[in-house]
Amino acid sequence: MPAAHLPGMDYERPLFFRVMQYAARADRDVVGMVSGNPDWEPPAALRDGLRAYADADPEAFQYPPSEGLTKLRAEIAERRGVDVDRVIVTNGTGEANYLAMASALDRGAGDEILLTDPVYPYYPGKTELLGGTQRYVPADEDGQLDPAAVRERASEDTAAILVNTPNNPTGAVYDEATMRDLVAIAEANDALLLSDEVYDHFDYSGRFASALGVDSEHRIVTNAFSKSMAITGFRVGYAVFPEELVDAAKTRHMLVNVAGSRPAQQAVLTALQETDPAYYEANRELMAERVETFTAALDDAGAEYTTPDGGFYVLARFEDFPGTLANVERLIDEAGVAGMPGDAFGTAREDWLRFALVTPRVEEAADRLAEFFG
């Protein structure tokens, strides 16, 4: 579906904030299931790192290297098996994706970004901001992306193929074969595969495969510690670039941000070095349990729903209740549950609602929905 917009998109005032503000003004108690803000504790080592930083010498409160603290970049590079010179620490995955998309469009090898439908709304917004055009590839009923469909739509106008795995909003996880096919399609069209992997610690299927597993100069991988460490407010992300694009990306990053937050980066470095893998495993198991709890209650409500293979979200469809903003507001007012309208994510799931499971009140929210629709 070539188009400048998808219905329901509002880039000037994203629907996430509109819905959260509406819920905050409600005259009743509301279970918030709008945004992907983790509700659990960050790693203890991260708090320790912040406390230690407070006592650092004055020079530690000045500008860090623009591309990120050297030790943090080295730690990321070692963990991801890449050259440290290709790593840029960014202001969250949001900036990492911005830099990746700008790099793709600046190559002069096309002005089109291939996106999935449904789509995370900020991707088309960034495409428009950067002067690119959007073309959409529908995902299947389970949210999976068929490489053959991508290959059919890719052309000499394609600057980038942008994917998110585990996916927001569908919960789909792309396996190794899919990622290899997507990189090959990018190579065949002189495009870049941009792989946003911010939910990589929340794979319930065991099939997740990073695009970094494919050796190619035609792929950029973005990620952040926002979800894995429950620190969305710290804004510490990163991108791994091909050698020929990294210098230009560093320049753009410097001109836009100068540099990122030095204390946040130092705390993340401490947490990376000192946090046991059991921390991540426990949070992954918590989210998997919430998926089971929420979908079981949706059965009682007579809903159709997706069972995610990864990420934080469940899509649900209720009979004669399309996923519009008006219906989301009605659920807030009458059921006390705030979700996101499906039409905010494109046309493919406009009859659905998206619920973020990052709340300890998942079961309560599901019971409210069951009562409302029962």
Describe it.
InterPro entries: Aminotransferase_I/II_large, AspAT/PAT-like, PyrdxlP-dep_Trfase, PyrdxlP-dep_Trfase_major. Homodimer. This protein is an alpha/beta fold. It has two domains: 2-41 and 278-373, Aspartate Aminotransferase, domain 1; 62-274, Type I PLP-dependent aspartate aminotransferase-like (Major domain) (Aspartate Aminotransferase, domain 2). The chain is built from twelve helices and 14 strands. The chain has helices spanning 15-24, 44-54, 70-80, 92-106, 122-129, 147-153, 176-188, 243-257, 262-274, 277-300, 325-334, 362-373, and strands at 2-3, 31-32, 87-90, 112-117, 133-138, 158-164, 192-196, 219-224, 237-240, 304-305, 313-317, 337-338, 340-341, 353-356. The strands form three sheets. The protein has an eight-stranded mixed beta sheet, sandwiched between helices. Strands 10-11-14-13 form a four-stranded antiparallel beta sheet. The protein has a two-stranded parallel ribbon with strand order 2-12. Strand 10 (304-305) and strand 11 (313-317) form a beta hairpin. The two termini are 37 Å apart. Residues 1-11 have low confidence and may be disordered.
Which keywords apply here?
about 375 residues; alpha/beta; 2 domains; eight-stranded mixed sheet; disordered N terminus
